[in-house]
Amino acid sequence: MAKQYDVAVIGAGAAGMMCAAVAAQRGKRVVLLDHATRLAEKIRISGGGRCNFTNMGAGPANFVSQNPHFCRSALSRYTPQDFLALVKKHRIAWHEKHKGQLFCDDSSEQIIGMLRAECIAGDVSWRMPCKVGAIEKTGTGFLVQAEGGDIACTSVVVATGGLSIPKIGATDLGYRIARQFDLQVVEPRPGLVPLTFDGPSWEAFAPLAGIALEVEVSTGGAGGKGSKGKGGKGKAGGHFREDLLFTHRGLSGPAILQISSYWEPGTPIVLNLLPELDVAEELIGAKTTVKKQLGNVLAQWLPARLAEGLLTANGFAPDARLADMPDAKLRKVGDAINRWAVTPTGSEGYKKAEVTLGGVDTRELSQQTMMANKVPGLYFIGETVDVTGWLGGYNFQWAWASGYVAGQSV
Ligand code: FDA
Predict the structure, then answer these.
(1) RsdA/BaiN/AoA(So)-like Rossmann fold-like domain: from which residue to which, for each copy (predicted)?
(2) Which stretches within 214-316 are classed as H helix?
């Protein structure tokens, strides 16, 4: 005999726990299923162990999706202030680090504890670790095959997240359930991920591993900040000013993680390594007064190793005397620093990606409730959906907001 519930939530991560708590506190009988042995591992490892749990500026412009407007409704119904109020209610100490990003003072475990307490307050039933099998539509709802016995329920909420970090239990179950019910899935791919460069063209830069500096980065011809929806793709281009980090295999740091969500394979990213300086103008202006070598002049503004590496890779001699160089050549040096265009050959993939781009196509879902338009009672929330936030607390805000609206609707 199947055990009867109103709601089965599959995936006890950020979105799943929020949804379960909200639904259960409305009086729904909720069961929360997860195959992991440790609860909410992604929250635990987030924000370097301190969980960047929201961003006070979160709005639709901070998300990548084929439909950039889809997230608007949920984000406005459950705001960063709402989540902060919950954090305060649980007396969790927090601080703002940078650009509206809020972190726990102590540990991300406190956010997990808070969500677990909210679920317990609503008397949510837990099945964990629990293998989830087939899901069938019945006359009155759904039958979910699960370790520990079948579950009959009116609503199923799929909150199994994306494919990032498979070693802590990420699976494609959410996409498989969507396809089973004939819902479109936007092809998933790694997001917020370091970019890699294979081949001889990168050899000059590999020794620069460890160098970090603030840069401007753009891709896809974007002029504005972040995403600009265009042509139905919702990710025309990105533009960020953040820190860049050279690694042995390529480029990383917040600037690269951000731009990776906008980058299309085969296209370049453009880096301005000295956003405050028009390098060509400075060099031309200094020609007559500075009797120094080019590499030494650039080393005033850039780490010396980086200046030398860039000059060598672009065919300029670091020991060339500035005074001997024609203006046209100095303009090319300026371009190599203010408009350095490089084409990554790939990314570090799901094993390093903080999020998964793509997912259940938002055209299949109601933006008010997150329910599938053609399958009454079936909901998708969190990272499983084709809504992906920037780095900086936006992804958790989407998990809370989409979990909340589904929890209110089931
Ligand atoms: P989430 O991944 O949290 O939960 C999915 C749950 O489903 C998991 O518990 C999993 O075990 C379960 N599951 C999966 N497959 C299953 C199956 N087949 N059967 C049963 N259960 C299954 N974001 C942010 O805003 N601020 C931050 O500081 C960070 N930091 C960060 C660091 C790192 C290293 C990563 C990888 C990611 C972040 N993120 C982040 C992103 C953030 O963690 C992510 O977007 C949310 O956790 C997504 O929440 P979900 O609930 O959708 O999925």
Answers:
(1) 6-408
(2) 254-260, 279-286, 294-298, 304-313
